[in-house]
Write a structure and sequence with these properties.
The structure is a single chain. The chain is of the alpha/beta class. Strands 1, 2, 3, 4, 5, 6, 7, 8 and 9 form a 9-stranded mixed β-sheet that branches. It starts with a helix and ends with a helix. It contains 15 helices and 9 strands. Helix 1 (about 1-25) packs across helix 11 (about 300-310) and helix 4 crosses helix 5 (about 185-195). About 40% of the residues lie in helices and about 15% in strands. The protein has helices spanning about 1-25, 45-50, 115-120, 155-175, 185-195, 220-230, 230-240, 250-260, 270-275, 280-290, 300-310, 320-330, 360-370, 390-395, 400-410; strands spanning about 60-65, 70-75, 90-95, 125-130, 140, 180-185, 205-210, 350-355, 380-385. This is Lipase.
Length: about 425
């Protein structure tokens, strides 16, 4: 009974957090367009962002062992069927894993010559795009209803332990080849967690991690500000669970006071979320707001924050009671992911930015310290002083600054 109450409260406070962010987006003080209301492509990612540019694209469903149906897109060849892979040589599969609050569309927001997914396809790679559970195209289950709390009873641990293995295993089964991996933001976290436990390494050749995140102690993003104010205990004090009205006056007053904080610029939501990006195209940002922003993923985000900000460690989900943790893990406290356990000879490429409000350079330094014994020739690190979080996936200069280096990294680790 107690466990059921705890799960209900957990779901409730995350739902409240979601409403707060959505309300923040709707405030008149926020400088965004009407496209801020998410309007995902009705025909799917392939039809809306790939085949219309002359590329082949397949829509694929992958089912996890706990029944979640994940949407995956495959771009098997370059534009018009080109892009290398001739002479009987198989095209090397690459998996792209998106970050938090977004989905696989984030790899396809720019024109083909600036979008990593299509650049890789044109350079001879077999490109696969993942969409984690709870995102717009992966809001399905073999038996659970996404409109019910039971569907959302998971954390980022399940993305690392269920979603990632299911997609990688499917690609390996279809291609009989190890994959190269590219993760951004949350996509780096789940890879680091999985690799630290020795998982997936038999099916992965190398990993390129953009805006790598394992720790969040120094982040300055507005989401951190909101998260600090909407944990379960604070919600009961500020609003009262029984009478909470997400569209009521109390929420409006709260959000306006939040926007009065000089550290939070509500007039520039993208910067407030990700840092001062240097190199974004305005039309791409509008498209991002319309098609890629996934507020329901806030549940994952806030649980992640609870561990890494409040507890200062990277650990599995804390069930809030030693008895519940003992039931799930065989110990009173949740196990910690030890990044230093990643094999020293596993090829890693990390690229991070000096203006990133999520993947702060100080936190990246802590991550790199965990990897200080990594083989020198197997760890490549790139620091880009003027890049923030979104520049790595939407920046108009990312092809020359980052993506070409990723391709060179993959070529060295074929």
């Amino acid at each position: 009974m107690a466990m059921g109450v705890y799960k209900f409260l957990s779901f409730l406070w995350v739902s409240v957090a979601l409403v707060l962010i959505e309300a923040l987006v709707g405030l008149e003080s926020v400088r965004v367009k009407s496209s801020m209301v998410m309007n995902p492509p009705p025909l799917g990612i392939c039809a809306s962002a790939v085949t219309n540019h002359g590329y082949k694209c397949e829509e694929i469903d992958v089912t996890t062992e706990d029944g979640y149906i994940l949407s995956v897109q495959r771009i098997p060849v370059g534009r018009g069927g080109g892009g290398g892979g001739g002479g009987g040589r198989k095209r090397q599969p690459v998996l792209l894993q998106h970050g938090v609050l977004v989905d696989g569309m984030t790899w396809l927001l720019n024109p083909p010559e600036q979008s990593l997914a299509l650049i890789l396809a044109d350079n001879g790679y077999d490109v696969w795009i993942a969409n984690t559970r709870g995102t717009y195209f992966s809001r399905r289950h073999i038996s659970l209803d996404p409109d019910k709390p039971e569907f959302w009873d998971w954390t980022w641990d399940e993305i690392a332990s269920r979603d990632l293995p299911a997609v990688i295993a499917f690609i390996f089964q279809q291609t009989s080849q190890k994959i190269h991996y590219v993760g951004h933001s949350l996509g780096t976290l789940i890879a680091l967690a999985s690799f630290s436990e020795g998982k997936q390494l038999d099916k992965v050749k190398s990993a390129a991690l953009l805006s790598p995140i394992a720790y969040l102690s120094h982040m300055t993003t507005a989401l951190g500000v909101v998260a600090a104010k909407v944990f379960a205990g604070e919600i009961t004090i500020v609003f009262g669970l029984a009478e909470f009205n997400p569209k009521g006056e109390d929420v409006t007053i709260f959000l306006k006071s939040l926007c009065s904080d000089p550290k939070l610029d509500c007039y520039d939501l993208m910067s407030a979320l990700t840092g001062k990006n240097c190199c974004l195209n305005a039309s791409t940002v509008d498209l991002f707001y319309e098609t890629s922003l996934n507020p329901p993923q806030l549940r994952t985000w806030f649980i992640w924050l609870k561990v890494t900000v409040r507890d200062g460690v990277l650990a599995k989900y804390d069930y809030g009671n030693p008895a519940f943790n003992m039931e799930h893990y065989g110990q009173r406290m949740p196990p910690i992911y030890n990044i230093s356990n990643i094999p020293r000879n596993f090829p890693l490429f990390m690229s991070y930015g000096g203006q990133d409000a999520l993947s702060d350079p100080k936190d990246v330094a802590s991550l790199l310290d965990d990897l200080k014994l990594h083989d020198e020739g197997k760890l490549s690190v790139q620091y880009i002083k003027d890049y923030a979080h979104a520049d790595f996936i939407m920046g108009v200069t990312a092809k020359d600054v980052v993506y070409d280096k990723i391709i060179s990294f993959f070529q060295r680790n074929q």
